[in-house]
Amino acid sequence: MASKVLRRNDTVLRPASNSSEFMAALLKTFEQQNFTGAPKYLGQVDGKDIFTYIPGDVPAKFRPWSDGQVGAAARLLRQMHDATRGSDLAGRFDVVCHHDPGPNNAVFQSDLRVAFIDFEQATPGGRLEDVAYMAWTWSISSKQTMALEDQAAQVRLLADTYGLHEAERHALTDCVLERQSRNARFWAELAVSNFHDLAAGDATTAVIIDVITAVGRGMGRVPPPQGQVGAAEQAPARGRRKERLTAPWRCWSLSPGPSGHAHCRCSAASTDAARPARRRRPP
Q1: What pLDDT is attached to residue 143?
Q2: 140-150: b or e for each residue (b if 16 or more CB lie within 10 Å)?
């Protein structure tokens, strides 16, 4: 999608999508709430959404960030969430989440984050979904480009600056793991879809499809062959919803949300932050 986004003078144009209506309403809500850390929505012309251009730099790749930069990002995320809390767009959820508040969707001025961009994935959810994703993409690195103790210190700084409650802090690590697994499932699904579009009869492609499909199926996102549906898939939807509302600590498992979107079970932890953190014993 990024390759189809164009800048024209002081505006940005991107192809309209199924999320355009919600995104427009969200950006209008930000404007009404005087939240300036996002572009303004200007309308739609010739099948393209039009936004104001925010001057600054967008990082080309992930890298370590200073404590000041992480703190500025956390403050901006909190302000964004507060602008949607209790709104019609958030509905029964805590806030409206960006769902991809990484450095790649940040506009920097003077080396500090001043705005979020790309709200195409925004949906109602629990604030921990965004905080966990931010902790992962801003402060956690498997390559250990920062010492592990420094990574942990930055995650604590992020939680402090954002203002997480005690119950949310206890759930944060699990929510980071859930966001990582959700991201892996997304790319597995996308890869399967793309590979199936390639030329038929390619033996190498067929092997790759089988491998990625197996990985995606193991993650629970690629449907199993007909007749091999497991007990979890056969469980009544009502029962799954009840479990999501009563078990926020099982953040690594998803439940369907509004309009079919999958939401982290951390949503319940955010909605009822006063609830003491606890964990379910393994079956």
Answers
A1: 76
A2: bbeeeebeeee
